[in-house]
Design goal:
This protein is mainly alpha-helical. The chain has one domain. The chain is built from five helices and no strands. The chain starts with a helix and ends with a helix.
């Protein structure tokens, strides 16, 4: 379980960082609506983490919580790493922080810490909901014995 979590968590982290740096290089790093694509990256990695877990542990296919735990475990690595990356990135780029403040509803209250905290909370909530839904789909549809 841990090897799968680490592998998929690092893939998730790499996807988040690559997408952010690409958007930043294109001058779109401040566009908060583009972070919705992070959800696609995240759900893709969650799917593969949960699927790999059940393929390697078929005896646990009756346990929904095992799949949810697998997804959350991978997400903590990916989202946690991205949160640290973004905290450092925003702290080192005051002009980027100012652009975020101008384009955010939080405005003057936005700091590198609070911006990263939003990333962490949003990511973990998506992981919890996504892991549960993907586990149900995988166990009820994909691995269901007919």
């Amino acid at each position: 379980m841990h090897a799968i979590s680490i592998k998929m968590g690092l893939w998730m982290l790499a996807g988040f960082i690559a997408f952010f740096l690409l958007m930043y290089a294109m001058g779109l790093g401040y566009r908060t609506e583009l972070h919705l694509f992070n959800g696609v990256i995240q759900l893709f990695c969650l799917y593969w983490a949960i699927r790999s877990y059940y393929v390697h542990n078929p005896e646990n296919m009756v346990r929904y919580m095992a799949g949810v735990a697998q997804g959350m475990s991978a997400s903590v690595i990916g989202i946690g790493g991205f949160t640290v990356f973004m905290t450092i990135f925003i702290a080192m780029n005051p002009e980027f922080l100012e652009t975020l403040r101008q384009n955010s509803q939080m405005g003057e209250y936005l700091t590198p810490f609070t911006a990263s905290l939003f990333i962490l909370v949003e990511g973990l909530m998506i992981s919890l909901i996504g892991s549960y839904i993907l586990t149900r789909i995988l166990l009820d549809v994909t691995f269901k014995k007919v």
